[in-house]
Amino acid sequence: MSVEITIPGIPVGKGRPRAARRGKHVTLYTPAKTVSYEGKVALAGQQAMAGLAPLLGPLVVTMGVYMPVPASWSKKKQQAALQGIELPAKKPDSDNVIKAVFDALNGVVWIDDVQVVDLALRKRYSLTPGVHMVVEQMRPAV
Predict the structure, then answer these.
(1) What is the value of pTM for the model shown?
(2) Under the GO molecular function aspect, what terms does this record hold (predicted)?
(3) Which of 31, 76, 131, 141 has the highest Cβ tally under 10 A?
């Protein structure tokens, strides 16, 4: 079985926990931007699952992270970005985007992201920013 998930909008990396003093105690909290993005990802996951139970066993994930082309760039540089010549070697870091997406999909698409045993990732520029991924149950070896 496989599930295709599209998360529209500019990809957001998982933010580091922040500390706040509450009287005599210090508490940790997740930044609002991360919480908001993870909610959007979970909703996309629920829609893709269409009421099915979370996937079981080892999983293979193919993920595309699509960043917006900066409007301040020249037309020539924008075209190079859309053709894959100019690549988005900038924030957010790929590993932080993976962490935000995977954490948000826990209990929705899979039981826990520890189930992901193979991952292929591409980060490119696009006119329509977002994350597109395919999650497949790994077939048992014959």
Answers:
(1) 0.88
(2) magnesium ion binding
(3) 131
| pLDDT bracket for residue 21 (50, 70, 90) | confident
Instruction: With beta carbons less than 8 A apart as the criterion, state whether 119 and 63 touch.
Output: yes
d(CA 59, CA 75): 40
Does position 141 have pLDDT exceeding 60, yes or no? no
Q: Degrees (nearest 5) of the Cα angle 77, 79, 81?
A: 70
């931007």: which residue's tokens?
A: 33
Q: Specify the pLDDT at position 24.
A: 87
25: three-class secondary structure by DSSP: strand
Instruction: Please report, for the domain that includes residue 105, its CATH number.
Output: 3.30.1330.70
79 inside domain:
yes
Number of domains in the chain: 1
Range of the domain at 124: 2-137
Model confidence at 52, pLDDT cuts 50, 70, 90, reads: very high
Strand 116-126 versus strand 59-68 pairing type: parallel
